[in-house]
Amino acid sequence: MKYPKNGRFGEFGGKYIPETLVPAIEELEENYLKFKNDNSFKKELDYYLKIYAGRPTPLYYAKNLSEKIGGAKIYLKREDLLHGGAHKINNTLGQAILAKRMNKKRIIAETGAGQHGVATAMACAALGMTSEVYMGYKDTIRQKLNVYRMNMLGSKVHPVKSGSMTLKDAINDAIRDWITNVETTYYLLGSAVGPHPYPVMVRDFQSVIGKEIKTQMKKINNKAPDYVIACVGGGSNAIGTFYPLVDTDAEIIGVEAAGHGLKTKMHSATLSSGSKGVLHGMMTYLLQDKEGQITETHSISAGLDYPGVGPEHSYYKDMKRIKYHSATDKEVIEAFLMLTRTEGIIPALESSHAIAEAMKVARKGKKSESIVVTLSGRGDKDVEEVQNYLDKHVKD
Amino acid sequence: MSKIKEKFAELAANNQRALISYIMVGFPNEKATIAAVRGLVSGGADIIELGFPFSDPLADGPVIQNASTVSLENGTTVSKYFDIVKKIRKETDVPLVMMTYTNILYHTGYQRFIAEAKKAGIDGFILPDMSIEESKKYIQAAKNNTDTIFLISPNTSKTRIEKISKISTGFLYLVAVFGTTGAKTGIKNYTLDAIKDVKKHTKGKIPIGVGFGVSTPEDVRTYVKAGADAIIVGSAYLKLIEKTHYDKLESKISAFTKRLKKQTTL
Ligand SMILES: Cc1ncc(COP(=O)(O)O)c(C=O)c1O
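Predict the joint structure of the above. Result:
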């Protein structure tokens, strides 16, 4: 959907927000609509994306991995090569430039894996602004490296000790900060979630991924890919990958975190097993109990450990245009190691969910078919977590 | 006429403003909730807000967040909440307002949830994350059943104040400060200005209740003098409940309520 009327993708989305935030959200939408087609804004963003962040990113044919599996060809969209190590910088540059033009001096953000926090800290440092980042306490421990990076980049990290101490609670506290400091503060949300216009704005900033894929595949194959795969936490790298390709014939698959398995409660597969509800300003699929209380989630990857999902994904799920599958922690570790060893590329645990699915699809696919997987980030931040997992679960 | 509207009419006739007292049901347990409500009633609370806990209370500060967590850990469910409301209803007919978040109603379905709440004895709802833009089905479901109390803020535009005051029933909840519940910002001039401003726009068609960060009799007096029709006290009650032994709870709550209520006579 090009621009959601009334902020709704079909029945999903909207703005369920405290009244204090309404003027801020209205100001944001007004400015976003004004600047998104403004030539000087586009030029500045384009400059930073190219010269600072390193766009366009390559589309790499993973020959060794493809041959090892022996089915369809796997191509990796290398968002892991971007400055900061993840797709998050596409969005933070866009929003930070917007915030600057709105004369907002103080930037706040939430982060799960820490990648959005790092990307926010970088964009703010580059543009001469300051930032404060809310991060679940549990995530500050398992993604400690990123906490150090944010500190060094001049960002203040607030560990959040309420609720499940993960991404969902970091968003709660960021919203509370925004309510308190609404007149001076810009909330730089890191995924395609939240009240309108965030889901559409974040999608637009991330759509550079899918647009490049379209052009690059055309050069390679003279057509769109047969399959497109990305991991889904809040859904920003996925919607940025998918949206420019929804009008092609590609089969599109989003991959959620199945954690210990969908039959357990230890997962974050919102679209695969959730129900409709209202959280963080949006109506969307959620993981909740029979009373409407949001349930605690689990994923080996902090960036997918979230009980909600961007409303546009809910829309495409119900429309049946996009399929949503999931990968368990175990499959993810296997995919992580497989890509690392066959291609010499260490993927983020989040992205490894997409790799796991791509391996399944490739196995069943024909040699003439092509699969594009968005490698949303690099895995340096995760090597300790993976080593711990291996020490615990693998005998030798 | 709704019970809340009747209450405001009765108070106005006696030259009084309303004291609205908030507690979280199930904090720290059901027994304490019942005792606290008895204290509120004997102390003279005009309307009682009964919080229902939500896992993600994003408009609440640490005090109500903690109360929500404790209440949920104690197993507060919608049906237990309604049972408690029914028990309270046997003892008093003070207007009761349910304060919670949109998802709790959305999940069951607005129609069914509101019908059950009304049957239990709830007279109105406050949902801090329900904006007027998303409220159509909610309002339809509540029509002729319960009041739907909407919130405004010191930064709400004139045109929005007019829109919201037309939709809101029972009263209009003016969030006193930029912040979450329990904010310790003290009295702000912008709040006093907002009260005057809002009154000018609503022209007495709907009472204005001021809440968030109101904790002392002095605060109550200041807002009464500024023209508020109702004053809402919440976190201060929860702090008192937290530090008071069960045996003394009813009398302490009653005494605190009396001190607050005293300030609402003109
Ligand atoms: C590398 C990487 N991929 C994916 C995600 C998930 O976010 P989203 O679903 O918004 O792309 C994160 C979030 O932290 C991430 O760091």
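Residues 349-364 of chain A form the longest helix (16 residues).
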